[in-house]
## 1
Amino acid sequence: AQRVTQPEKLLSVFKGAPVELKCNYSYSGSPELFWYVQYSRQRLQLLLRHISRESIKGFTADLNKGETSFHLKKPFAQEEDSAMYYCALLYNFNKFYFGSGTKLNVKP
Amino acid sequence: GAGVSQSPRYKVAKRGQDVALRCDPISGHVSLFWYQQALGQGPEFLTYFQNEAQLDKSGLPSDRFFAERPEGSVSTLKIQRTQQEDSAVYLCASSLVIVQGAYEQYFGPGTRLTVT
């Protein structure tokens, strides 16, 4: 069965410190993975997708099929990065499985 | 232009009452999704439309849940005989195309349903 696991509910770091938000998935096929972000009082929005190998707002994520992981990383956290982050797996072109989310708190 | 809109933003229903939640997707978006997000959880897929066709309703938790999109634009999620476990935020999202690797969903603000 398809599943996305985000083991950390809350991650607190200081401004300027590196950040890694963990995401593991279970899927027997070739996965399409995404990170979504929700800032305070805003709606859920796409941050990045693995297939485009892009870097958005300094965040990157590498798909590791051997470890079935898609961790989100940023070398130097900023206060404006504080938000809820959700990892998501696309199944069968139309069904998204979301993790339970990690709240990132960047302290000044 | 305007993004995805949902109404009402908040709904309080007494147990056993029927509710209808509305979603206005971005104009021209082919795909429309409904999700249920319980407190402290990520969104859970409910159903998916491509234009007016409901192609996947595997996530609807019971036959009390019904969704429609009769003209391929506005969609309504209806919950009959609401129960306390239906309390959640209901999210709608729309997407322009279904192309592998180019998938971007645009989410609405959600409707927070509280069943008392």
## 2
Amino acid sequence: EVQLVESGGGLVQPGGSLRLSCAASGFTFSSYRMHWVRQAPGKGLVWVSRINGDGSSPTYADSVKGRFTISRDNAENTLYLQMNSLRAEDTAVYHCARVRISDSSFIYWGQGTLVTVSS
Amino acid sequence: DIQMTQSPSSLSASVGDRVTITCQASQDIKKYLNWYQQKPGKAPKLLIYDASNLETGVPSRFSGSGSGTDFAFTISSLQPEDIATYYCQQYYTLPLTFGGGTKVEIK
């Protein structure tokens, strides 16, 4: 059974940093591109970042480019999102998600971890 | 970026009603459109991929149509368990973008 479990969320002050983790199991982690998608409270879904299975070609939404860094440890089956210079508008539940190899459909999602940026 | 305009933002219908949600892309995205269902406090669930293909295990009352810039999602007979917010999402190009969502309620 595929499982994605996020951790690392919490309350942080504006300008602060946080690192999210996503522990993956039930599939060959290194074979799949992985994504982060966020959802502000009461709002819609917003794609944040993706990374290839081998850790190459990290790509970001403009809103987080230069502040967030996606990475992965295939030996530990874990996806990361390092978030620096956090802003109030980064407050959201952050989901990791796995796509199908054949297309970019998000077929597995974690339950998410809440990041709150507030003083 | 490709903008996805979804409408309506909310709707209220009776059990058994036919419900249709539309999604318009700001440019041609071919068939590269997904539809997701999200229930409160839960992660989204893929229902339709490639605009019209039903994901395995999803009830046949859900369907999708369209290509290019105009797409539709239909629930042929609304059931109480269909209460949720529905999102379209394009995967023609990065950044991946979602519609604003449609909240479906029972009248």
